[in-house]
Amino acid sequence: MSEHLAAGAKIARMAGAEAGYRYLNNEGYSKYLRAAFFTKWLYFTTAVQGLDDTAAAPIRDMQVRNWIATHADVRLELGSTALYGRYLVLLDAWGHPEDAAWSLSRSQVEREIFGLATGR
Description:
InterPro entries: OGG-like_put. It holds the Pfam family OGG. The protein is mainly α. It has one domain. It has helices at about 1-15, 15-25, 35-45, 60-70, 80-95, 105-120. The protein is globular and about 40 Å long. The N and C termini lie far apart (about 30 Å). The relative contact order is 0.15.
């Protein structure tokens, strides 16, 4: 199992969040490590420049998924690589609104959603 986690982290750092997710969800799959866990793993192993690292793979867990479903009417079920890719596109769009003088990384947007979902 540790080999799969290490490989997923390496793939995510080299080829991006969706590639790391794809690996851990398919050939690196472990029945004990579901998407909500391994997105946390990917985040902590790709946030090499700190919490707001633009290359960090954002976490997608039930709190985030449920908040997006309720407030944005977007269904992003856990466990689908294609839907994780859609999640990344959504975070990019929310983090980089047109004509805004600011931007947020995917992980910053995810953290804000998590805070709204949990009150933390």
